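INTERNAL AUDIT FORM
Audit reference: QA-55
Scope: verify that the stored structure record matches its stored sequence.
Auditor: D.O.
Record contents follow.
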Amino acid sequence: MNDGSGAPALRCLARLRDQRPVSASGLRLLDLELPRPLPFAPGQFAMVNLTGPGARVFARPFSILASEGTVVSLLYRVVGGGTGDFAAAPVGTTVTWLGPLGRPFPPPAGPEPHLLLAGGVGLPPLLAWRARHGGPDDLACFGARDVGDVPWELLGPDWQVAVDNPGLAPSGRAVAHGTVVAGAEALLAAGGAPSAGARRMLACGPLPMLRAAAAFAVVRGWPCLVSVEERMGCGYGVCRGCVVPAHGGGWLTACQDGPVLEARELDWDRFVHREGGRGVSGVPGGCGCAAPEARS
């Protein structure tokens, strides 16, 4: 079993070292201590589960935010019983770990600056990418429902923030009202972004945001990579609980073919919303084992 860069994934027990809220609306930062340092590429994820009586049938997928030595940081939101159990777990709790998994965001492929679009729990891969590969002419934008849903302490002043619902931001921080895609478009149109001209786009967030980002890129002829957030059961392509519709027909697994895919690889018209999560219509096969929480 390999991650997207060819390095073997680590299957082990880990210890919950710390966790705390980083937004008023429920985003939480979770630190786990592994038995050895963990190399990962931005956009990769891990399957994590509690042990003992608290273990769920299926592990939950978490995007990797950062790693330092043997400590790995994850960002998540409580959206159901599984993530609720993690939020209630005390320091010292033992969990199972399998990762890193999946196809990551690649390093810069050329001199063009990048446009990074993150929404909600889609922040980790882009925050990690910017920390590792970001350039001075890149434009990084984060979108949320309201100012209480923004993890301000994780976003430096070079991140632009857009919220759906107006509110009072922390002192010294500016907020645009509207979607993150609309906010980025306004900055580019007004010359408020470093460097004009073509850009490469990287996006991770809710489906409507990804669809808007893909359309934004098509209009401008810009290459666009998206990280899809889907329900997962196994994390390595066996259960097919996380398939997404491929352009031209067929299906791709979010966990193994992705989660990072070129926007043009996907058939956006076949995506549909599903109550309690996200999914696609007419999914073939699959064991129905996808976890009730998507990437959280």
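Auditor finding: record pair retrieved intact. The radius of gyration is 18 Å.
Action required: none
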